[in-house]
Amino acid sequence: MTTALASLFSGRPVRPRLAMTGEVTLSGKVLPIGGLKEKVLAARRAGIQTIIAPERNRKDFLEDIPEETRGSMTFHFVSDVKQVLELALEPKGAKPAERVHRNGRDRKAAETERAPVRTTRQKSGMAAKAKKRDAGGEAAQ
Hints:
- With 141 residues, the chain is an alpha/beta fold.
- It has a domain at 2-92: Ribosomal Protein S5, domain 2, CATH 3.30.230.10.
- It has helices at residues 2-10, 36-45, 58-64, 67-72, 81-88, 107-113, 126-135, and strands at residues 18-20, 23-24, 30-31, 50-54, 74-78.
- The strands form two sheets. A three-stranded parallel β-sheet has the order 1-4-5, sandwiched between helices. The protein has a two-stranded antiparallel sheet with strand order 2-3.
- The chain is extended, with a radius of gyration of 24 Å.
- The termini are far apart.
């Protein structure tokens, strides 16, 4: 939430393919969290390349995260919200990075490859019942 608000107020977008976890105190300290292994593995499955985590979770990282995962992603351990914002937000004046889908392809290429999907919406509720009743030849009451 802190990063989203900082991005909104500063006009600096959040870097793509980045995930972060931790709790921030009112004084700006980043507190440790539980379940780091599960969060990291889920982020990897989602195509995340960079993770920002609390410094006090570094021990969990070394003990719980498989070596293969540690080597395939970039990890930053922080203790203060200023560090989080430095890592998470694009520099001032930088053009926003091209957004990338989970599979690693850019969004525009993925959209052009999709076949158009046609759906029909059915009316529900009282209007649909009245229309069905009128179509069946029954008199409306």
